[in-house]
Amino acid sequence: MPAYQITPRPARVLPTSLxxxxxxAAAAAEAAVxxxxxxxxxxxxxxxxxxxxxxxxxxxxxxxxxxxxxTSVTSLELxxxxxxxxxxxGGKDSPTGLRFKSYSSGTFTFDQNGRPFTVPETRVASIQxxxxxxxxxxxxxxxxxxxADPGSEPLESSFKLGAVNIIHFHKAxxxxxxxxxxxxxxxxxxxxxxxxxxxxxxxxxxxPIAVEYGITSAPQFxxxxxxxxxxxxxxxxxxxxxxxxALEKAARF
Length: 253
Prior knowledge:
Layout: E1 6-7, H1 18-28, E2 34-38, E3 42-52, E4 55-60, E5 65-69, E6 73-77, E7 83-88, E8 98-104, E9 107-112, E10 115-120, E11 124-129, E12 134-135, E13 164-170, H2 175-189, E14 195-201, H3 208-213, E15 217-218, E16 220-224, E17 230-234, H4 240-251
Parallel strand pairs: 13-14
Antiparallel strand pairs: 1-14, 2-3, 2-6, 3-4, 3-11, 4-5, 6-8, 7-8, 7-11, 8-9, 9-10, 12-15, 13-16, 16-17
Helix pairs in contact: 1-2, 1-4
């Protein structure tokens, strides 16, 4: 048995235009995103970055960086809740095992090992998101290609002919992998079989799949055109706009 899991998309009805199908699917997809509301009027979708010095740092879908004072923020909802480190004022011991869920009415709400944990805004000094792309430990010896499992089938064997195929090297404990993976699954589900997502669970950097494809960070998204040729890789940055552009490129490749 291979040391990784492949999750292909089910077959669906073909549309008449590949580009039109991809554009419509991307427009209809609803990714899991954070939502911040400012002054009770303006809502922005994107990703929460951090909270420090009574200021929320938030990156919108179109890559604008908002720096909003706490007094101007009505609410903040995070989906899915990321793991965070919280510094409390007054030198008090910081709680551990927290996932940041929301902010509203002057209260920060966290999940602590499956239970709600709330902290008033006056006690919070900073919140830092610590989940990010996981990199190979530089002190760990680089794996040799010879260590790959020679009996495992190549991922390309799960490609669908005539479709845009995307290999998602997924790390389940990384929020960006979950969020952007959800976005791609929504795009594929609405594309009528013109976009095929192959999700590969990366459980370690020296596993056969990581060695074979040279994966030292996750998530990664590899895009293949209808010809089966690799058209793009998203490794360091993968906003919804980046994914849409890579889809468009692959559809023409």
